[in-house]
Amino acid sequence: MNESPDQPLFVDDRVEARVEAVEAQLGATYAAVDRVLERNLVRILEAFRRRRLSPAHFIGSTGYGYGDAGRETLEAIFADVFGGEAAIVRPHILSGTHAIASVLFALSRPGDNIVFATGVPYDTLHPVIGPSGRGQGNLPDYGVDVRIVPLAGDGSIDIPAVLRAMDDRTALVAFQRSRGYQDRRSLFVAEIGEAVRAVKTKKADVCTFVDNCYGEFVETIEPPHVGVDVIAGSLIKNPGGGIAKSGGYIVGSRDAVAKIAYRLGAPGIGLEGGAVPGGWLDYYLGFFLAPHIVAEALKGAHLTAALFASFGFRVDPPPHGPRTDLIQAVEFGRPDVLLTFMRAVQAASPVDAFAVPTPGEMPGYQDPIVMAAGTFIQGSSIEFSADAPLRPPYRGYVQGGLMRAHVKYALVRAFSELVRQGLLSITDTSG
Ligand SMILES: *Cc1c(COP(=O)(O)O)cnc(C)c1O
């Protein structure tokens, strides 16, 4: 492989022609992505105008951070755009996992139970939900019973099973919109809304929660628009627009958000404190750009799906169809194909392009994981990245991309390398 920084990357003309031909078929799909972007941008601009956003809001605060108008306005804007009454938007939230864990702890009390309505949650939440006795202070340690309801056979929410799992001590019913890195499909906002209506009919005072990671701005509505009480996510994914350098957000009803603020901070302090000496410009600019960046990433995902499909690979979701998140699964079939793809993606990255991805052990995973991520912001998966466990059928996940053109170039580069190494034939398949 010509990974050496001293040599230009190898590009095969036939591969380039294939990518152009595949992309030429995506015109209507790209146009549909742009229509969603336009609707979401208008919602953001309307919120900026309603909240009278001005340069004074970018300044930031020190010490306790009381009366930080930039923070209060940003939180009001997130609530407006995502359809809630209140929000917490902070660089101090460590990650999406921290935001989600704060919601789970804040909205349950000893003796309560939480029903996970979309199967086993995302990997990083496993230590949060149990088992007890690890000394980490997880939900069961605090006497909260966690109940997991698998998805139905067709990948939809098994509403009757969710209702059966609930009882009068159910404090929270939780949903995960994105597949994460699981072999299941992602759930559209409308489907979640249908389940929420059934749950509320059974128990009117139950709180409903959606892990919204990777979903923001992929559709024209967000979960609170269909009656969900609380959502949470990461600012180094969609809503940070590639600009926010850390943090997470929570949006929901005034009552729920107040409880979460007491848990995240301290009882009594709630939302009133939290200084950001560096100011809020990145958060406003990132949120403004987010629908556009999400659209770029989605075009990259459609192109990835269409190109792999043209070579006979299994992809999920398929190209062209509607989406609700950014994750593209690809079945690479062979470890050498997977590794070659990952290395080419890394070599086409803006940062750390000289690094060579190598499978490694990761805590919580049984198989070695290989990752390609040359991102400006550490671990940011709104930037173009890919990862996969090294086990048959070598299913990998490709996500993000600040620019469609970057994803396209990485694909040209990766498929050129696959052809050059004889792992793929370009002559016996037709675009
Ligand atoms: C990324 C993600 C999380 C956790 O976010 P981190 O910021 O990595 O902690 C949770 N759920 C889903 C579905 C995710 O995609």
Task: Record the SSE blueprint.
Elements: H1 13-24, H2 27-50, H3 69-82, E1 86-90, H4 96-106, E2 113-116, H5 126-129, E3 145-148, H6 159-165, E4 170-176, H7 189-202, E5 207-211, E6 230-234, E7 248-252, H8 254-264, H9 281-310, E8 314-316, E9 328-331, H10 335-347, E10 369-372, E11 385-389, E12 395-399, H11 404-420
Parallel strand pairs: 2-3, 2-4, 4-5, 5-6
Antiparallel strand pairs: 1-7, 6-7, 8-9, 9-12, 10-11, 11-12
Helix pairs in contact: 1-9, 1-11, 2-3, 2-9, 4-8, 9-11, 10-11
The structure holds pyridoxal-5'-phosphate.
Question: Any overview of this molecule?
Answer:
By secondary structure, the chain is an alpha/beta fold. It has two domains: 13-40 and 288-420, Aspartate Aminotransferase, domain 1, CATH 3.90.1150.60; 61-278, Type I PLP-dependent aspartate aminotransferase-like (Major domain) (Aspartate Aminotransferase, domain 2, 3-Layer(aba) Sandwich). The protein contains eleven helices and twelve strands. It has helices spanning 13-24, 27-50, 69-82, 96-106, 126-129, 159-165, 189-202, 254-264, 281-310, 335-347, 404-420, and strands at 86-90, 113-116, 145-148, 170-176, 207-211, 230-234, 248-252, 314-316, 328-331, 369-372, 385-389, 395-399. The strands form two sheets. The protein has a seven-stranded mixed beta sheet, with helices on both faces. Helix 1 packs across helix 9 and helix 1 packs across helix 11. The two termini are 25 Å apart. The relative contact order is 0.15. Bound molecules: pyridoxal-5'-phosphate.
